[in-house]
Design goal:
Length: 245
């Protein structure tokens, strides 16, 4: 954890000093809308998607409204291959957690940029409610242990003797069991640094790095035999694109 924070700190300082060396002839805009692809330490290859609307309050401050749609994972999740089909599944996983994070916050311009050059850097702070959708994780398994003509798709239960790895063919189909989901309520808070690198005034391109904490009122059981939690701290990196006017 400390090593990650040191790397992020050095990274942010390097960009900050670089931006200070740029010309400070800024250009004005009053609002922007961005969307991005998120990678974070609590998600997979793609953690989820981010949407944000920002409106200017004064020369350096914007108020923001955001929505994040994320797939949150247990740190101990490991994919294994079925010895029967070669398809992969997550051993011991019982539930998915899809997080809908609503956010209200402030973006503060630290360094402005000149049109078609430089980097605009903002400090980002946002907070809001979270809705966790806890959906069952389905696997496909053999019923009699011998023939593919008799299989069953059901929620994975690592305590069920019929759900031994040797009997599992793979995961269920996408979004299977979503109608049987349960809802968890909570809240989230994030802080980060936003780097806007675009060269066209009406467009926004860049990335954001920071930390986020997503917390729920009760424990979210993703893997019954692993440590489960109600609070999910994470480092994140978001590539974003959008428009401004």
């Amino acid at each position: 954890m400390a090593k990650k924070l040191q790397i992020i700190g050095v990274f942010l300082l390097a960009f900050a000093f670089s931006a200070m060396g740029q010309t400070q002839d800024s250009y004005e805009y009053n609002s922007e809308f961005t969307w991005g692809i998120n990678k974070n330490s609590s998600g997979g290859l793609i953690g989820g998607f981010v949407f944000k609307k920002a409106k200017r309050i004064n020369e350096r401050i914007f108020k923001t409204y955001g929505l994040e749609i994320m797939n949150v994972k247990n740190p101990q999740e490991v994919r294994v291959q079925s010895g029967i089909t070669g398809n992969s599944f997550i051993a011991g996983k019982r539930n998915y957690l899809y997080a809908l994070r609503f956010q209200y916050g402030r973006d503060v311009i630290l360094f402005t940029k000149a049109p078609q050059q430089g980097v605009e850097i903002k400090a980002v702070l946002a907070v809001g409610p979270s809705i966790g959708i806890v959906a069952p994780y389905y696997i496909e398994r053999l019923v009699d242990g011998q023939t593919f003509n008799n299989t069953k798709s059901e929620q994975y239960d690592p305590n069920n003797p019929n759900h031994q790895n040797s009997r599992i063919l793979g995961t269920g189909y996408l979004f299977q069991g979503l109608g049987d989901s349960k809802i968890q309520f909570g809240g989230n808070i994030k802080a980060g640094i936003n780097f806007e690198l675009g060269v066209v005034k009406s467009q926004v391109t860049g990335f954001e790095v920071g930390v986020l904490v997503d917390a729920y009122f009760s424990e979210v059981v993703l893997m019954p035999k692993a440590e489960n939690r109600a609070v999910f701290p994470t480092f994140y990196f978001t590539l974003f694109y959008g428009s401004r006017k």
